Amino acid sequence: MEKGKGVMGSGRRWAVDFSDNSTAPSSRDIPDPPGFTRASVDQDDSTVSRQKKDAESNWKAQKAWEVAQAPFKNLLMMGFMMWMAGNTVHLFSIGITFSALWQPISALQGVGKVFEPYKDSKVELLGPKLLFIALNLGGLALGVWKLNTLGLLPTHASDWVSSLPPAQEVEYSGGGIPL
Amino acid sequence: MAITYAVLLFLIFYSFQPTLSLYEDQVGLTDWHQQYIGKVKQAVFHTHKTGRKRVVVSTEDNVIATLDLRHGEIFWRHVLGHNDVVDGIDIALGKYVITLSSEGRILRAWNLPDGQMVWESSLHGPKHSKSLLLMTNVIIEKDNVVVIFSNGRLHAVSCIDGEVLWNKDFEAESLEVQKVIQPPGSNFVYVVGFAASSQFEMYQINATNGELLKHESEAFSGRFSGEVSLVSSETLVALDSTGLILLRISFHEGKISIQQTPISDLVEDSPGPAVIIPSSIMGLFTIKINAVTIFIRVIGKGKLEVVEKANHETAVGDALSLSEGQQAFALVQHAGRDIHLTVKLAHDWGGDLLKESIKMDQQRGLVHKVFINNYVRTDGSYGFRALIVMEDHSLLLLQQGTIVWSREDGLASIIDVTTSELPVERAGVSVAKVELNLFEWLKGHMLKLKGTLMLATPEDIAAIQYMRLKSSEKSKMTRDHNGFRKLLIALTRAGKLFALHTGDGRIVWSRLLQSLHKSEACQHPIGLNLSPWQVPHHHALDENPSVLVVGRCGPSSDALGILSFIDSYTGKELSSSRLVHSVAQVIPLPYTDSTEQRLHLLIDADKHAHLYPETPEAISIFRREFSNIYWYSVEDENGIIKGYALKSKCNGNVDDKFCFDARELWSIVLPSESEKIIATVTRKMNEAVHTQAKLIAADQDVMYKYVSRNLLFVATVAPKASGEIGSVTPEESWLVVYLIDTVTGCVLHRMTHHGSQGPVEAVFSENWVVYHYFNLRAHRYEMSVIEIYDQSRADNKDVWKLVVGKHNLTSPISSYSRSEVVTKSQSYFFTHSLKAIAVTSTAKGITSKQLLMGTIGDQVLALDKRFLDPRRSVNPTQAEREEGIIPLTDSLPIIPQSYITHNIRVEGLRGIITVAAKLESTTLVFAHGLDLFFTHFAPSRTYDSLTEDFSCALLLITIVALVAAIFVTWLLSQRKELQDKWR
């Protein structure tokens, strides 16, 4: 897309582009007219189609990396929000914390879906996926850390002993001042 | 930090300054208040034609009250101090009530209509003596005079302003003045008495100026026995000290003559000594030989004649002057279930002015006192009304053969209280008196809705309020889901058991215990203790719970004991037994047998332990726990605390396998020259503790509470300082407090408060004790708190070990294994002096605690325990603040809204009892003294239920309206969509 835009770019007042754009990816912006099949043309010229495919997979790989990096911005945003929310338990901080926990979890659940458009036999998606997962796990960790600072995680002895009933006593003693 | 902490924080956040007060319209919804006066000692009627008819009474609980004769309600009431015993009352000038109290030292006049005090004068004298009050008709300078003999001095006091007009001393060493008599129509008084028990003394004194007119004395060969009866204005009847000879003493015109008549001359088969019943009926007196009451008439020149011998229990009232010198008196006799009230003329035994037979409730016992009053009927004849005081201390007014009203004044002297659950609601059994029909239910809800929407008229509001107060829901005789409805079972000093419904305070049943009834074998039975005996859980539907009453035949500690088992639902005495041993202590054990009867250990005066119930099963349970049962006794007179273990079967009694010998394990001897025990307190046996850990949020730490049932708090003071506040200087006064483990005798904590003094009021709960005392240096009351923590378990801090359960925190612990404790304490000033102190108790022990303090003003004040937290500091950190720690102040605040008795006074407050409801947030509080007060109290507000004023109808209507709105809008949108599609 950028390529096309570059060609059509500013600077010149006008230009006539004689190159055949029909096979370039940019032409995909415009839907083909009904009844027209591009495949027949593609099949004719295998070198052109291979070039085209390479360009597409390059673009896909680039896109995939971009998508994989997207949670980073989110992470910064979340961090700021958490700092704003403070360390006391109230509606706002709990809301922020739970959204901070929920976002990475839902993102992780939909890892396959996020990278679906960039699926290609030639594109190596493992790297971006791992980055995406790592960043989201980072977000999750941030959320859990926040949860902990709010005192909502059972990480202290007190969380485990407070539910224990008092120990039974072996001896029993009664009495007092005689009636 | 912790989850629970966060949740707690939420609670605290909402209840930071809990609003404990209530709105005006909430008064009476959950609370009730009953006013009593105690057993009536003396009654004076005031039945003038104008004004309301009333009776002025003084009681054994030092109360002066006027009661409405029509309904028995209290017009006004004054409770004198516990050392201000009322000696006599009378009405002066038809508008003042004159009372003599405090062993004849204080004379007061109260305005009859409203009870305002008019004047008070203090009378002093050279020596201690009987106190007599005589209303004279002598007038000095337009002042009516009341003559008082007290403390060896005769005073004449003006009725108008209480000024002492004259006084005269009777300083003769051994003179015991028996009577002060004013012959009718004269202006002198006779003061008569015995000197050295064998000489009769008579003084004639001019009532206008106190001048001694005549003094005569006459020796008697025998000795006099105290009580005398007046048979005319110048004749007395007394008994000699053997109780076999009647003495008729006449002092007509200054000439004393003593005439002796052996009782055997009058009564043929007189078995033993007689007792004279003091009275002042003209020409008639009463003696009692064993249970037989004998009426004897004095005829003419010193002749005595028996007019009647009554074998039934009989009570005789004092004389009532009718017109033209006629006197009437009342006597009440028991005949089976009925009582016979007879009013006779003093000079004419045969002619009864009144003879009535009244059916009497058997649970009221015998008639103890009778007071009569007359009124003139429309036909000119005399009618009589009688006020009778029964054995159970109740007060009844009889008129025209019926009981006009009755007052259950026995409830003014509660000894012990316990609670019992009500029966389980069964299908098909209607328990509410009036089941509401649907229409009424709807009407009620509509009214409520109107109230919520502020559309209600004043009549509607009144109707709503009436509905709320009279809700049949709260007075049902079945258990409720929240556990608010219970039976309060109270044992009174008269030996009567009352069951009160917590919903409205009505008496469900009452029973005068036959086993606590006076009998040949048991002359002065007293009730000691009341405890739950059987609480069925497994068979709650077909078994009734029962309570155990422990009593004793007499005030001494070696008197034989009495046990009585009473059904909690019906009040029926299931069984009772006279014990062959005494009862010094009653220890309920934490074990029950298969029928859910609780095992009790009764310790007698010889330190033998007796196990009850006496069944083989009980003994087998007891055998199993034999080595773990200990007991201790606090001998407060000699300052020794001793601990015992059970040893073996009793040596003396071969057969008694339920009797065990004790072995002394330890003793703590307090130095008698420096310490005297004034208070001991332990934890309540049934107190629920939710957790053993105390969370310190500030440094994310945990401390383990030392939660033990075997802890005893003891407070001692310097022997010199055991008197009144201010009787010693701060230097020679100190207060020492101890925390003692009663199994091992180990003193876990000891602390001295220098310059402090009792009385000490203390309460022990969980791992803390709060006590109240007087600080002589600061001239203020102080309250201190001690919290005790277990240091030996403090290293249980590894989270992972706790997660996988590798800790010893729940394993049973023994008192012998640990002794490492840490205590924290802090003291604060407090404004009030206290009469009682208690702490709220809830079902699971989760809700935060509040202290309930019975103030000197007879109110119950709630104070959050957080104010008595030893971790309070002047500048708590942010984390500590979040935890709910209040910045330290030198004195505890008294928040006027936190009086749970709101504007009511519980006169003569003696005890506060808290009972957990099933609803965790709520405690039931019962305060008793002369008055009774009951309320529900939620220390952290009712966080677990909707408030009473929550309108369910409004919620329902809102939901219905919303559903309707959704349906309508859905229809509209459908139509719109269709139209859009057609377009």
TrEMBL record, chain A:
Compartments where found: Endoplasmic reticulum membrane
Q: Which Pfam families match?
A: EMC4 (PF06417)
Record's GO cellular component terms: endoplasmic reticulum membrane
- The yes or no answer to whether the keyword Membrane is present is yes
Write out the ranges of the annotated region (Disordered): 1-57
Q: How does this chain sit within the bilayer?
A: Multi-pass membrane protein
Keyword tags: Endoplasmic reticulum, Membrane, Transmembrane, Transmembrane helix
Give TM segment ranges: 80-105, 125-145
Q: Which family does it belong to?
A: Belongs to the EMC4 family.
Stated name of the protein: ER membrane protein complex subunit 4
Q: Source species, please?
A: Hibiscus trionum (Flower of an hour)
From TrEMBL, chain B:
Ordered alphabetically, the record's keywords are: Endoplasmic reticulum, Glycoprotein, Membrane, Signal, Transmembrane, Transmembrane helix
Annotated Pfam families? Beta-prop_EMC1_N, EMC1_C
Signal peptide from the UniProt entry: 1-21
Q: Which residues form the ER membrane protein complex subunit 1 C-terminal domain?
A: 765-982
Q: Which GO terms describe its biological process?
A: protein folding in endoplasmic reticulum
Compartments (UniProt record) = Endoplasmic reticulum membrane
Which intervals hold domain EMC1 first beta-propeller?
22-409
Which InterPro entries does the record match to this protein?
A: Beta-prop_EMC1_1st, EMC1, EMC1_C, PQQ_b-propeller_rpt, Quinoprotein_ADH-like_sf, WD40/YVTN_repeat-like_dom_sf
Record-annotated membrane-spanning stretches: 953-973
GO CC terms for this protein? EMC complex
Does the keyword field hold Glycoprotein?
A: yes
Task: Spell out the subunit comment.
Answer: Component of the ER membrane protein complex (EMC).
Annotated family: Belongs to the EMC1 family.
The name this protein carries in UniProt is ER membrane protein complex subunit 1
Q: Taxonomic lineage of this organism?
A: Eukaryota, Viridiplantae, Streptophyta, Embryophyta, Tracheophyta
